[in-house]
Amino acid sequence: MSESAYPPVSGHLDDVEAAQTEGRRKMEWALQHMPILQSLREEFEATKPLDGEIIGMAMHVEAKTANLVELLALGGAEVAITGCNPLSTHNDVSAALDTHENITSYAVRGVDDEEYYDAIDAVIDHEPTITVDDGCDMIFRIHEEYPELIDTIVGGCEETTTGVHRIRAMERDDALDYPVFAVNDTPMKTLFDNVHGTGESSLATIAMTTNLSYAGKNVVVAGYGYCGKGVAKKAAGQNANVIVTEVDPRKALEAHMEGYEVMPMEDAAAEADLILTTTGNRDVVVDEHFDQMKDGVLLANAGHFDIEIDLVALEEKAEEVYEARDGVDAYEMPDGRRLNVLAEGRLVNLASPIALGHPVEVMDQSFGVQAVAVRELATNGEAYEAGVHEVPDELDREIAEIKLDAEGVDHDSLTDDQREYMGSWDHGT
Fold this sequence. Notes:
Elements: H1 16-32, H2 35-47, E1 54-59, H3 63-74, E2 78-83, H4 91-97, E3 103-105, H5 113-124, E4 130-133, H6 137-145, E5 155-158, H7 161-172, E6 179-182, H8 187-210, E7 218-222, H9 226-237, E8 241-245, H10 249-257, E9 261-262, H11 265-271, E10 274-277, H12 287-290, E11 298-301, H13 311-317, E12 320-325, E13 328-332, E14 338-342, H14 348-351, H15 360-380, E15 387-389, H16 393-407, H17 416-422
Parallel strand pairs: 1-2, 1-4, 2-3, 4-5, 5-6, 6-15, 7-8, 7-10, 8-9, 10-11, 11-14
Antiparallel strand pairs: 12-13, 13-14
Helix pairs in contact: 1-3, 1-4, 2-3, 2-15, 3-15, 8-9, 8-15, 15-16
């Protein structure tokens, strides 16, 4: 294993011991509410399915993620981790992780672009055999800068919508050279993490950051995928008037038939009290939209990268930019209007100063899927060729069963006759 010049998190902090104590406190609180990871900890500690593996991770390093990281280490792996967003790391949690003898954490909040990629390079210097990514930056970095490692990588997991878009694009261009599970696309991820997690955490973070209510306000949701649906549903539940913008005619029709106003962003921008982007694409809110906006509008992003709102164009238009409140930058226009950008246009539910990310119970499910997907790669990796793979359905169902058991919820099962009927084609009228 090669050595990296980039130091672990402890090399960046003044009071390391205090940070470690506070980070551990946060992790223990989260774990109390993560019955899936608790169950998997017992299994992984007993069977050591990851023995001998080196896992390289680029994730949002906060308490819930940390419990996934420790689970993988308890399963026998050596783990190196860094952040997948410059503003989403909790330094105390990163420091607590770094105390584990099988974990090295390079994640630090507030790094610049060069430091961000230096930390990713430091993780890659551990020569991982399995990668776990959120946004595909590590996967892409390995393919571009460290292709010599690919032959020893069993496979990887990609956590989020934007990252899955990237790995599918790599596959289409014959540029993805090892197998990667599209964890984001499993039912246990899309139906809960993307809908409830993004909806609840984004709106909660915006409310706490601004101290403003949604009731009676026009909330514009850009994009009506799983994340957008969750935001729209939760905002409507807080008595907001929800407006949806979409480029896909079927999704636009779906939003219309579910009772939301649907209009182009050019029109929606003039009505908005809050615009929240959830597309995973770039240039969703751009120059001409800024001209239509009301004084005091809030602009926030729930997509992975900070490219959904064109902040370069906004800054060029502004006469003055100043911090109006922690986590809120006001861009004052020549006519006196103030357009307020939250969390520097980054992932608002993780990058805002008070952000805590998705609810613990939601991430317990998503990280449970991540854990069993990593277990599958470690124990059966040779069965998967280079390219994008769906997480085997039985693994997704395994996580659902663990969660139901923990909640004390029982459910029906198919009878033999029902199973035979559903699997046959010769039963007619």
